[in-house]
Write a structure and sequence with these properties.
Helix content: 10-25%
Largest sheet: 6 strands, mixed
Shape: globular
Number of strands: 37
Structural class: alpha+beta
Number of helices: 17
């Protein structure tokens, strides 16, 4: 998800058929016959492997489970399955061996997290469902306002001279609406679009609701977490920062059974202080020596809020008590912020801990919480009270030293911090998904989302010699790359796939398998997009400014909104935008000029063009259609197969290797580029991207499926918009009329 849900967010988701078992496990003779005919039409063959069987006595489980592994890419996953990094008999390996795998899964355009998850959930393209990027502009908004693709109206809204309003007939509908209409039960754990919110127009005074919460709510709804008000922060301490702890600290430690064999030391001033929703928190840290060896070697740090004092267990979730971190554990400890109205929490990680306290490096993670719309408060509190507060997710701001206090941390320390967040956050998301299933074993469909391997792909995907292994040194490309760093980063990407597969395995274990090792639920594992390395960050504003066309540099007339390598460029059209400044005649001219500038843009630096004279910067450039007459009422509202209601007037996707995200401050110009006050190209501070043309092999998503109604084989090519109608078909429900995908159970054949 980089942009920068990293994409998170802020960033940033398999299956089999056993023909003899289909009729046996169907809910009725009619359902069994229907499922059998589906299986036979696909030329499905069952494969039994008793050694993989994991029988589960409890046979109550969801009929279908859809899991999204954000950013999982077939070529990398195949590599890890082949070399044994991911076991063949569990998780994704089990689904491959017991079910169906697609060689290629063509995702949405652009191949971005928000857009493609809504495409998966609706069975319709981005232009049709009106979620065209991770961030974009609603034409009903003031010209300078954006909306998150994760919180935008699915299927659009009405927009006319009377202003915006909720559409009675959206151009696209979430899968769960058709299922609900037929009495099916649907649950969602952090799956994009199922968030229970009322959507309004950003920046518009007294905005009406343009999509009500009812369309975004399922039977058990847990939205993705959000920022709680305190960003991550690093602390580099030495022994001069500590002194003998006050008696109250020692007394409180003793009261909960924490013993120190050397005098307890405490930071002489508060470690940190911040406010969350009007509640002030003053964080302090104390050092303990828990080894009874006659030496002063401190090995434990206690973190506590001075307003609460030091508290131990047992505690009732979401409370955690104080956080105790032991040297060498290499795992963070959660820390709940008591009395926070939104159930906010953070965590502490100690990356360096000298026994004599001469060097102590501490990371305090960003504070986050699960949004609490009144419509789904019961479900949110069920997670808070049984799984815990929203765990800190992998934070690129730490790794890229954008958060304060991390300048004195080594690269390895920052990498260790990120890896801790990868492991702990995937574990948390998995437990959220398991809780949703356990509370709703009678669900017809469970929709689960896992943020990895997307976040690690963004941070660590170095596989192109043109990538600078030191973001501050443009010379560190090709033969001057750091091979040790490349090796470490490749290992981190592998870890992300491993923990994602382990999450899938835990879901399989929850529902159990039959005697042949086939999951008892029909499990689909897909991703929203693939991944590719990129070597160059691009400034769209400088590109427009350097065009020599004054209007393109006027932010009151033209504005670009980027997501990864995709850009929506909007023109401030009179009569469409609330404060439009551009006439219709000028609009036509500007649109042509913008398209011409983008199509003619190229990179001619031989260090990056692979021996070509130049490389075309933009792979795809689409223009909003306009009617022949300037007086046509639909002027400026035209749509096409790639331009939706709220797409830019120009929508463009860059070529592989280039990305709008990643520009550093100050800018680091590339090797061989002419010095410029408005550089278009620069060295980025991270490495992987998505959002390119979805038909490129690098952007292919994964598709795995296995279960009692699914056989064994390989599909040549599927589309992510085929997932929703396939699930509907499997559950005996007619897909909505707005669905553009096709049911794989009826149409596709195995090779």
């Amino acid at each position: 998800m980089q942009n920068k849900l990293k994409c998170g967010v802020p960033s940033h988701a398999s299956a089999q058929f056993s023909v003899p078992k289909i009729v046996e496990q169907a809910g009725s003779m009619k359902a069994g016959l229907s499922a059998l005919l589906m299986a036979l039409s696909l030329n499905i063959f069952a494969v039994a492997n008793p050694t993989l069987a994991q029988e589960k006595p409890n046979t109550t489980h969801p009929k279908v489970i859809l899991i999204s592994l954000d950013g999982a890419t077939p070529r990398l996953l195949n590599q890890y399955l082949e070399d044994g990094s991911i076991p063949q008999n569990e998780g994704l390996g089990l689904l491959k061996n017991k079910g169906v795998v697609a060689d290629q899964n063509i995702t949405c355009s652009p191949s971005l997290t928000a857009a493609c998850h809504i495409a998966i959930g609706t069975g319709s393209t981005s232009a049709r469902n009106d979620i065209n990027a991770n961030s974009f502009h609603l034409v009903a908004s003031p010209f300078n306002q954006n909306i998150s693709g994760f919180a935008a109206p699915i299927g659009g809204y009405t927009f006319d001279i009377h202003g915006p309003a909720e559409s009675a007939e959206p151009t696209s509908n979430p899968l769960w609406l058709a299922l609900h209409a037929q009495g099916k039960k649907v649950i969602a754990a952090t799956f994009p679009g199922a968030d229970g919110i009322d959507v309004q127009v950003p920046g518009l005074a007294n905005s009406p609701i343009i999509q009500g919460a009812a369309r975004r709510t399922v039977d058990y709804t847990v939205p993705f977490g959000t920022f709680g008000g305190a960003g991550a922060k690093g602390f580099s301490l030495t022994n001069t920062d500590f002194n003998t702890a006050p008696e109250t600290t020692t007394t409180q430690l003793n009261s909960i059974g924490k013993t120190s064999f050397s005098p307890v030391l405490q930071k002489t001033s508060p470690l940190d202080s911040f406010a969350i929703s009007g509640v002030n928190y003053t964080i302090q840290v104390a050092a303990l020596d828990t080894t009874n060896d006659g030496q002063a070697n401190y090995d434990t740090l206690a973190f506590f809020d001075t307003n609460q004092g030091i508290k131990g267990g047992p505690v009732t979730l979401p409370s955690t008590g104080s956080a105790f971190v032991k040297a060498g554990e290499e795992v963070s400890k959660p820390f709940y912020l008591e009395e926070s109205t939104n159930r906010v929490g953070t965590g502490f990680y100690v990356s360096t801990f000298s026994p004599d306290l001469t060097k102590v490096n501490i990371a305090r993670y960003s504070a986050n919480f699960i949004p609490r719309p009144s419509t789904i408060l019961k479900d949110v509190d069920d997670i808070n009270n049984n799984v815990g507060f929203w765990a800190p997710q992998p934070d690129f701001r730490i790794t890229e030293k954008l958060s304060p206090g991390f300048d004195r941390f080594s690269d390895r320390e920052l990498e260790d911090i990120y890896e801790d967040q990868v492991r702990t956050f995937v574990d948390y998301q998995t437990r959220v998904g398991l809780r949703a299933i356990q509370q709703n074993p009678d669900a017809d469909l469970a929709m689960l989302y896992i943020e990895q391997p997307d976040g690690s792909g963004h941070q660590f995907l170095i596989s192109d010699p043109r990538q600078a292994t030191n973001p501050l040194d443009p010379l560190s490309i090709r033969d001057h790359q750091d091979p040790a760093k490349v090796g470490r980063y490749q290992g981190y990407v592998r870890t992300a796939y491993q923990v994602a597969s382990q999450a899938v395995q835990k879901i399989i274990q929850e529902v159990g398998t039959n005697a042949e090792g086939v999951p008892n639920s029909n499990i689909f594992v897909v991703s929203d997009h693939g991944f590719a390395p990129f070597h160059t960050a691009v400034s769209i504003n400088n590109l427009l400014k350097n065009s020599g066309i004054a209007e393109l540099a006027d932010s009151n007339k033209v504005r670009a909104v980027v997501s990864g390598p995709a850009v929506n460029i909007y023109i401030n059209l009179q009569g469409r935008e609330p404060n439009g400044t551009v006439t219709r005649a000028e609009y036509v001219t500007l649109k042509k000029e913008i398209a011409r500038v983008l199509r003619n843009s190229a990179d001619s630096n031989p260090n990056y063009t692979l021996g070509n004279a130049s490389t075309k910067l933009f792979d795809k450039v689409y223009s909003r259609p306009v009617p022949d007459s300037l007086t046509d009422p639909s002027f400026g509202l035209g749509i096409s197969s790639f331009i939706g209601q709220d797409s830019g007037d120009i929508f463009a996707i860059m070529s592989l290797g280039y990305n709008f995200d990643g520009t550093q401050t100050p800018v680091v110009q590339r090797l061989g580029d002419a010095t410029s006050t408005n550089p278009i190209f620069s060295v980025p501070n991270f490495y992987g991207a998505h959002g390119y043309d979805p038909k490129l092999p690098e952007m292919s998503a994964i598709f795995y499926a296995a279960g009692p109604d699914i056989g064994h084989g390989t599909l040549n090519k599927v589309r992510n918009i085929d997932v929703a109608p396939t699930i509907s078909h499997l559950l005996g429900v007619q897909p909505a009329a707005t669905v553009q995908g096709r049911s794989l159970l009826k149409k596709l054949r195995f090779r």
